[in-house]
């Protein structure tokens, strides 16, 4: 395979590529439709905190109904952040989120407020609780050279090349995941160490004293009932028209936004006449429900892999006030986030 230009001199300032964990904060997470928003509002008001969204789709402007963003009334009760910050045609990486979230936390502390993250995107949560390897900036000359090699030699050659420099990651990545394989090659070339090596340090759980992370846990049938009800509500509130408006405004949604549960199904519904069997609204509803249940299952699997999570059981009789009582107790007892850090530590 061909080679790009010689790698740049390796910097000794590897710490520039490491984004540390975010401490002195509270985190409230849980699967979709678990009731996080209402509980977070109650907790934030009791603890004098501002809320930072931990949702990879709430960042997109105009995607309101399908993402179940806090409405204007809720946002008026407690100040919210990281909502409606980018166009739905743009991409927004985990590293972009982590950098922005750290800055938002510093701004909240500067006002003498506490920081409460709320949302259900596990990768965002892990990047803040355990830290994130940002890595060196992209080497587009190298990337383009590898892309040309893929066209000439095929993706099997790409995989073989990755296995030589980072076999651990080579076994994990899907054969078609060219983007991440190229990034792994790029990191190994520029740092002298495989990407899997850099990522290992982020497998260490945070202590509960450093940051309290609460997860709402619902019995499966109860969660599914809530999911089914929300899907019906989204369609009745105008999700289809919201997607039509977004398409009229932008022409198309970006790759990430178009994959959001609820939106990708409506896009299929709107375009199903193009050589596909048309979907009825009833079929659309069931499709959204099924995909949302699958999404919730994937979230729960992720959460089980984060040992620092403190589970809060939620049943049909649980009230917002009762849940807030339990969460506030956990937050105040197990985390230094009860104390706003001095300016020198922000």
TrEMBL record:
Its cofactor is Mg(2+). One of its GO terms (molecular function) is ATP binding. It catalyses: adenosine(37) in tRNA + dimethylallyl diphosphate = N(6)-dimethylallyladenosine(37) in tRNA + diphosphate. It comes from the Bacteria. The keyword Amino-acid biosynthesis does not apply. GO terms for biological process: tRNA modification. The keyword ATP-binding applies. Residues 55-58 are annotated as: Interaction with substrate tRNA. Keywords: ATP-binding, Magnesium, Nucleotide-binding, Transferase, tRNA processing. Its EC number is 2.5.1.75. Pfam families: IPPT. The record marks 121, 143 as: Interaction with substrate tRNA. Substrate binds at residues 32-37. It is an enzyme of class 2 (transferase). InterPro entries: Dimethylallyltransferase, IPT, P-loop_NTPase. Monomer. Catalyzes the transfer of a dimethylallyl group onto the adenine at position 37 in tRNAs that read codons beginning with uridine, leading to the formation of N6-(dimethylallyl)adenosine (i(6)A). PANTHER family: TRNA DIMETHYLALLYLTRANSFERASE (PTHR11088:SF60). HAMAP family: IPP_trans (MF_00185). Belongs to the IPP transferase family. This is tRNA dimethylallyltransferase. It comes from Aureliella helgolandensis.
